[in-house]
Design goal:
Chain lengths: ~450, ~375
């Protein structure tokens, strides 16, 4: 039917894109001739394909007429070789196989109309797009940032009732095979009625009862997804959730913002330094305050010791109750302002801020220093760029506070060591949570393949 | 089960390590200064005064403090007695200054170090001084400029406040070391209590046990110059009825112990500065500067020699010539005895390199 050259090209293209579920390979048979088209459905406009490629095929009499018709489009060209055809295809073109020729026909579908700005992970200089609650759009967003045939996208359906479409995206040549098989295996093992969010899938994948720290990164930024895919990670995208899961993720990933790359290196380093400072303040400061103020006040400078003692003079409760009271007030305030409708939210912060900031000290319930400490803890906590990690840090300061209250500075040191040990013991799909360098990365057998292709 | 057992063991271990129990900062009375004096009653051995800081209730209020005194046979008893007079737990963690009364240091004072060294909550970096007329009176002074209790007593000794060339800085551990080190004798600053201020310009040299000799203001300055070097000081030069004040930017000294038939200590003093003020109306020319330099070195040499001879006469050694001698000798068994026989008759040779820089504008 087709000439040998065309059949070979088609085979070659099929082979290159065999792992992608969104590749469409259709043949059109009219009474007079037969053509076949191949395209990536997530980045092509199906209307265009029907209107300008399929429909006219039935309306023309001969193949040469159809060829002339195609040639009349400025966006329709004859590719030099297979590679060019593939490249065009990956940027949103349809490959049309005629009897002895093949054409590429541009039918790009850029979904910008209903892609909203990122509002959870905000970047100043980076791209502003965020994922949406539609899988094909999300794949479109990723494909448009990663024009490579090595990007595989495989579909899966999870949830007995919800039948949620999820897609596993990765770069075939650099992603770790064992992680891919592990992810697929775990996904197929999942037995749940309804799957609605990335966080839920995180729990189902890690399967731990009391886990506190996120071991998979949840993101809404296509640029972060693409960066991670290019680093050989596996990404799970959802039909109903504007968030994606990045597998595997280590501790330090949760403290990197995309702005670190977009800013100048000196600025970026300073920003990440600020974040780690923030983590230490948010976790250790409440415990440190109690340990020092109640066990070892000689650590302060004498001036500070006296002013703390002075400001605490009217406080009727011991320091650990004082700080617990204030921390809980702060948590209530944060929770209230997150969950309330936006119109009421500002009222909550105003009332809360007023009570916490001024009235509590004047009533002698808490000391001035305490207000500063609680504010520092809250602000430092907001510095953490990934929300899930921010929540984990919010929780982890309480055990540290408890142990510091019981055992003073020794307790603070021990609980901090305990926290580090706990984190070091975590694994994210086989990767150590504290992995800093790429030393323990297993050798990848697929690397060879990619260099030959 | 295993984790529960481990946690229990950890908690038990931790309870052992915590040290002092939970006591809030506002339930503690911080002892800022300790004064140790000769008791008035013959039966007792020591009079202890504690300067307790009262935390300011509102920010911006000036320093309030309370001084409590007790006379007993031991310091521990005195502290117990004072404890029964206060409502909050005494905390020695912020003790910054220890004042030994002038009368107390006339006799052997080494017994007080037992308490000061053994108390783990007293920081060994507390400053230690001799108080005139007594430790209690020094603690009782309240300068109007003070923002925190005993601030104006602590700041001159630390690097934070005024940098006076006649203040000798001694910390508790240094003083204690020097009471046992052979060849290096303790020296303490002498704080004189005035009505609303302190006068710290003198120093007292100890012969391990008690105060042996008091140094005058000029001698204290010279001691500091030889001992640690000075950065901001001044030298007064007198020449043909004219007086000039030299602002010294850098003054330092080094010395060698020349051994031999007639052992001597060769000391070089380097001073660099500018003429800051003079009584005559003559212009300060290059020639005049040379004359001032000559007169200045003579003056400094005389002061240095008189200080060294004074110390030699009293057979005390706060600069550490003996320690230097011991560190440069090999005969460990006899060197100390040798030095003790050498020191009273050793010859001092002082060479002063006085350099005056031309002040003024570029023409």
């Amino acid at each position: 039917m087709f000439a040998k050259k065309v059949t070979e090209s088609k085979k070659w293209l099929e082979n290159k894109l065999k792992n992608s579920s969104d590749v469409k390979n259709d043949s059109i048979s009219t009474t007079n001739f037969k053509v076949s088209v191949m395209y990536i459905s997530s980045i092509c406009k199906s209307d265009t394909i029907y209107q300008y490629i399929i429909n006219p095929a039935f309306k023309t009499d001969t193949l040469s007429d159809y060829e002339t018709y195609l040639r009349s489009f400025p966006g329709c060209t004859e590719p030099k070789d297979n590679q060019e055809a593939l490249d065009k295809m990956l940027t949103g073109s349809v490959v049309i196989f005629l009897k002895s020729k093949l054409f590429v026909f541009e039918a790009k579908n850029v979904q910008s109309g209903y892609v909203s700005d990122a509002n959870v992970e905000i970047s100043i200089l980076g791209p502003q797009d965020a994922l949406v609650e539609k899988l094909s759009t999300n794949i479109n967003l990723i494909r448009h940032r990663y024009h490579s045939e090595r990007l595989s996208i495989e579909n899966k359906i999870i949830g007995k009732l919800s039948q949620t479409n999820v897609a596993i995206a990765y770069d075939q040549s650099i992603a770790d095979d064992s992680v891919i098989t592990d992810v697929k295996k775990k996904l197929s093992e999942i037995d749940v009625d309804i799957l609605q969010s990335a966080g839920q899938l995180h729990q189902l994948l890690t399967n731990k009862k009391w886990s506190l720290f996120p071991t998979l990164l949840i993101t809404e930024r296509p640029d972060r997804i693409v960066k991670n895919i290019s680093e050989g990670k596996v990404v799970i995208i959802f039909e109903t959730s504007p968030f994606a899961l990045i597998i595997p993720s280590v501790f330090f990933d949760f403290f990197s913002s995309m702005d670190d790359i977009y800013q100048l290196p000196g600025v970026g380093r300073f920003l990440s330094f600020l974040r780690y400072m923030g983590v230490f303040i948010a976790t250790l400061l409440p415990g440190f305050y109690v340990a020092v103020a109640s066990y070892n006040p000689e650590i302060f400078r004498v001036q500070l010791a006296l002013s703390i003692a002075g400001s605490r003079a009217t406080v009727p409760y011991p320091s650990y109750l004082e700080i617990l009271f204030m921390l809980f007030m702060m948590e209530f305030l944060i929770e209230a302002s997150i969950r309330l409708p936006k119109t009421v939210g500002s009222a909550a912060t105003t009332v809360g801020g007023l009570i916490l900031g001024q009235a509590a000290t004047e009533a002698g319930l808490v000391s001035n220093i305490m207000i500063i400490i609680v504010a520092a803890v809250a602000i430092a906590n907001f510095v953490i760029p990934i929300n899930a990690m921010g929540f984990a840090i919010r929780v982890v300061k309480y055990p540290i506070l408890l142990i510091s209250t019981l055992f003073g500075l020794t307790g603070l040191a021990i609980s901090f060591i305990g926290l580090v040990l706990y984190l070091a013991n975590q694994r994210s799909f086989g990767t150590s949570y504290f992995r800093f360098f790429e030393i323990d990365k297993p050798p990848n057998k697929k690397n060879k393949e990619s260099t030959t292709s | 089960m295993k984790t529960i057992r481990l946690t229990l063991i950890l908690i038990l271990m931790l309870t052992v390590f915590t040290g002092c129990g939970l006591k809030d900062i506002d339930k503690r009375f911080f002892v800022i200064g300790i004064g140790l004096d000769q008791p008035e009653d013959e039966d007792n051995k020591i009079k202890v005064s504690l300067k307790l800081a009262i935390p300011p209730k509102e920010s911006g209020k000036s320093a309030e403090f309370q001084v409590l005194t007790a006379e007993t046979e031991t310091i521990t008893e005195a502290v117990r007695t004072i404890k029964s007079k206060v409502d909050k737990e005494l905390d020695f963690g912020h003790t910054k200054i220890i004042v030994l009364g002038q009368k107390l240091v006339q006799n052997d004072v080494r017994f007080v170090f037992d308490w000061l060294q053994r108390r783990r909550d007293i920081q060994k970096i507390a400053f230690i001084t001799v108080g005139k007329p007594s430790g209690l009176e020094v603690l009782n002074v309240k300068p109007p400029s003070e923002t925190l209790p005993a601030d104006s007593l602590i700041l001159p000794f630390g690097q934070g406040g005024v940098e006076s060339p006649s203040v000798v800085q001694q910390k508790l551990y240094q003083f204690y070391q020097k009471t046992t080190e052979r060849g290096l004798d303790p020296i303490l600053p002498i704080v004189e209590a005035k009505k609303e201020y302190f006068d710290i310009k003198q120093a007292g040299v100890f012969n391990k046990k008690k105060l042996k000799v008091e140094l005058s203001k000029e001698e204290t300055k010279m001691f500091n110059m030889i001992n640690t070097g000075l950065e901001h000081t001044d030298v007064k030069i007198k020449r043909d009825n004219k007086t000039a004040m030299v602002a010294v930017e850098k003054a330092s000294a080094d010395y060698d112990i020349v051994q031999g038939k007639k052992p001597s200590i060769q000391m070089n003093i380097d001073i660099e500065g500018i003429v800051e003020e003079q009584t005559s109306r003559d212009p300060v020319t290059e020639k005049a500067l040379q004359k001032y330099e000559k007169a200045g070195s003579k003056e400094v040499k005389a002061t240095a020699l008189s200080l060294l001879k004074k110390l030699q006469k009293e057979n005390v050694d706060p600069i550490g010539f003996g320690l230097r001698y011991r560190s440069r000798s090999w005969n460990n068994d006899t060197e100390w005895e040798e030095w003790q026989s050498i020191y009273p008759t050793i010859d001092f040779k002082v060479k002063v390199d006085f350099k005056l820089l031309t002040p003024g504008i570029i023409k």
